[in-house]
Amino acid sequence: MWTDSHCHLDAAEFDADRAAVIARARTAGVTQIVIPAVEAGNFEAVRVLAQQQDFVYALGIHPMYVMRAAEQDLSLLAETLEQHHGDPRLVAVGEIGLDFFVPGIDAELQQHFYLEQLKLARRFELPVILHVRRSADQLLAGLRRIPVRGGIAHAFNGSDQQARAFVDLGFKLGFGGTLTFDRSLQIRRLAAELPEEALVLETDAPDIPPHWLYKTAEQRAAGETARNEPAELPRIAQSLAELRGWTLAQTAAVTSANVRAALPRLPQP
User: Fold this and answer.
1) pLDDT, tens digit, for every residue of 239-255?
2) Are strands 199-201 and 151-154 parallel, antiparallel or unpaired?
3) Cα-atom radius of gyration of the chain, to the nearest Å?
4) Tens of pLDDT, residues 46-97
5) Can you give the pTM of this predicted structure?
6) Nearest C-alpha neighbor of 96 from the set 72, 76, 120
7) Least buried of 17, 102, 147, 231, by fewest C-beta within 10 Å?
8) Is residue 246 situated within a structural domain?
9) Does residue 9 lie in a domain region?
10) Could you give the CA distance from residue 231 to residue 227 in angstroms, rounded to a whole number?
11) Residue 33 maps to a domain
């Protein structure tokens, strides 16, 4: 019924109880999960996990990992995409992009990895899953320079103009836990006003917890954790349904269809 378009199910935060996390997701009606890689070291982990659990995966190098990546990682990505290009569970190149929020990540190096991975997406005719954090305009410039087959702008938090520019280039926009906070005025307004065909849902688990899981800095310092998981997706979707005036069933149908449009290899329900 539900499709989580972005979940790091291979993350260490799930090592102790991954099977239970997946079981809870399925009980909640989350029938499909997109698992993006973040670096060369987890290409095989996401592929195997997707195969084992009947989910799908993407392969790429995340901008927050480029400082520990090397040029041969791009070669390995190309080789791995070539090797598994016939795998119907390989649905995108990702998670790739630019992050100009976190300090200390070399901007030029990020751009290099981003553009080279766009070239690979073109070469293998795959969409991309984009990390967008204070980088929408630079990402759009790259996409205009090296057009790809659309994809998903994950955890979108940009302007109306930027949102529509991504949509015009064939992208869907990912909305998740941040949508559930009343103070997220811009994100909630975009979710309410953008064309319905632009919207997909995600958890980004174990990150971006919804408001009912959020912990303050003081709570986190005291050792409390706020792990997100894919079973939270239907409750996150309730916020979108309320903003749009939709039923939950309508929300599931629209957003899942949009993920399939963005990632055409995704299996039909």
Assistant:
1) 999 999 999 999 999 99
2) unpaired
3) 17
4) 999 999 999 999 999 999 999 999 999 999 999 999 999 999 999 999 999 9
5) 0.97
6) 120
7) 102
8) yes
9) yes
10) 11
11) yes
